[in-house]
Amino acid sequence: MLKIAYDPIYAHPLPPGHRFPMLKYELIPEQLLHEGIITADSLFSPNAVDEATIMLTHDADYWHQLRDLSLSPKEQRRIGFPLSARLVEREVRIAQGTIDGCQYAFEYGVAFNVAGGTHHAGSNWGEGFCMLNDQAIAANYLLNNKLATSILIIDLDVHQGNGTAEIFEREPRVFTFSMHGDKNFPFRKETSDLDIPLPDGIADDEYLGLLKDTLPGLIEKHKPDFIFYLSGVDILESDKLGKLALSKEACKERDRFVFEQCKQKNIPVQVSMGGGYSPQIKDIVEAHSNTFKVASDLFF
């Protein structure tokens, strides 16, 4: 069964007067239910991750200031919106949803978080609408509980996973791979174990060629026993922030290739959805929904 972390708080965390493209978090599960890709039993609502697990990844002082809503105005501006208890609750539920997804991935091969992909959050900072790094928290949870010994994080969002790179820069058990727009946010990049910076306007064939030339070798060399996949759809030509030029068909083929690699090598994979900022919400929802559909076709 395809298992998907989803909670209504994913879509409605912001105070009045602050807009952000959160509607997709409601519409994706609705679309999948409408098309019969999933049933209501596929969706689960996560609890809040515990503080000890958060602090395997994030500095205690940063977490306590985030929890207590006492980050400085400058730190809040870096995040992109003012703190609230509801926003922090959203983050801790997303992080637990990704951890829970790992458990389902061990059972079913693949599992999803409708939200997540908060890869700009570093060990002691939040940035770019990210406050806690859900996949980093889950990766450290797996390592700490001896559920995995070698982890590969595949970040194919259009923006570099700078927070993830910083968190694991001295952790040899986690290999960070980010393929992202070279001239896009964040403008101060961190160093992943492997970065592939992409030129503006790169299109389907070149993008897919780079991915297909790279990923099998990474898996063969590092032999991960767990994979995290950040499947942002801000690589689309229609995306207003992305600067790349991929079609929906190529985005879907990207997902198919990643999932085929995981399934062929029997490596469980947890998927967080990451970014998507096309002007038409239907384009965002369709592209994200395709990721779920491809996984459903391959694994179930």
Provide an overview of this structure.
This protein starts with a strand and ends with a helix. Helix 5 (85-108) crosses helix 6 (134-144), helix 8 (204-222) packs parallel to helix 9 (248-264) and helix 9 packs parallel to helix 10. The chain has a single domain (4-299), classed as Arginase, Chain A. Helix content is 42%, strand content 12%. The chain has helices at residues 23-34, 51-54, 60-67, 73-79, 85-108, 134-144, 162-167, 204-222, 248-264, 281-299; strands at residues 4-5, 43-44, 110-113, 151-155, 174-181, 194-198, 226-230, 269-272. The model has no long low-confidence stretch (mean pLDDT 95). Strands 2-1-3-8-7-4-5-6 form an eight-stranded parallel beta sheet, sandwiched between helices. With 300 residues, it is an alpha/beta fold. Strand 4 (151-155), helix 7 and strand 5 (174-181) form a beta-alpha-beta unit.
Summarize the structure.
Helix 7 links the parallel strand 4 (151-155) and strand 5 (174-181). It contains ten helices and eight strands.
Per-chain topology:
Elements: E1 4-5, H1 23-34, E2 43-44, H2 51-54, H3 60-67, H4 73-79, H5 85-108, E3 110-113, H6 134-144, E4 151-155, H7 162-167, E5 174-181, E6 194-198, H8 204-222, E7 226-230, H9 248-264, E8 269-272, H10 281-299
Parallel strand pairs: 1-2, 1-3, 3-8, 4-5, 4-7, 5-6, 7-8
Helix pairs in contact: 1-10, 5-6, 8-9, 9-10
Domain Histone deacetylase: 21-288
Keywords: Hydrolase
Protein name: Histone deacetylase
